[in-house]
Amino acid sequence: MALRYNAHSKPLPNAVSDMSNPPWHILGFGVIGQLLHAEFCQSGQQCVVIPKPNQPVPASHTVQYQTHTESLDIKPFTPSDSLVERLIVSTKSYDVVEAITSIKQTLSPQAQIIIMVNGLVDTSDIAEITTGSVYWALTTKGGYRTAAYNTVHGGSGITRLGSGAEPNWFNEWQGAVKNSYWHIDIDPFRWEKLCVNAVINPLTALYQCHNGELANSKFKTSTQTSINEAAAILEALGFRQQAQNFNDTCWEVIGKTGANRSSMLQDVSLNRRTELSTILPPLLSAATQHRVPTPQLKQTLGTFKQRFSKLY
Questions:
Q1: Structural domains in the chain, sorted by start
Q2: Please, are residues 33 and 43 in contact by the beta-carbon 8 Å criterion?
């Protein structure tokens, strides 16, 4: 039987629960959006889901953990609600600008906007839409969906946010999203995350395998070569610490999320557009600019575009 959480559920021990605080709004209710919604509900914090146009959300969704399943009530956002003060954007990276634009009339001028996507998004594009503060969030947690509103929690991980001074809402965030850390300069971690995605996502899609299977002998050579090339790009960009640790970092993510089906693998399995255009091309552009050779990553991109030309 699934545990159930709703607006009147008792918060978990040590949860942050101040109903006077602005609610969190989630725009993009895929795997990460559903996992975050579950964590905020479990901590007793208000969390509202902004549905896609003409696609109403159901009354609840479920998250399946290793030992139990939880059912969580969904409070949908309506335009008549108060202005959005806290917005988490977890759409596909190519949809970020359009998604924020679609709700800009409901955003508070001082909105706190947290962008949590796989690919690289230009901050200036968002600045043209809103006067709010924009932050970036990266996570190594993950999962996969067995149905539109049924997510399997595939692995725990670290969540990093930034940049600039730590905002006053971060304590509440940490009360819900465990293992979260604030960074004044988030850019090294954004590029590190981009590199991790550039290694794992396209290869799992091409090989039709779970993340952990990249360590198998059949796939390990191309995976290791991709890691080496990505590390060289990080070094050329000046992110020396991330470059030096990237081999261990990437293999650790592969190990910890071994049971996961990457978002790109899920997309190609469902014949949906992937995020590859916001992952590999920006990385290869940086490599070209800094004259870093990347034959494996280029081959991966070429093979992907040839095999999944309509999903690129």
A1: 3-185 (3.40.50.720), 188-307 (1.10.1040.10)
A2: no
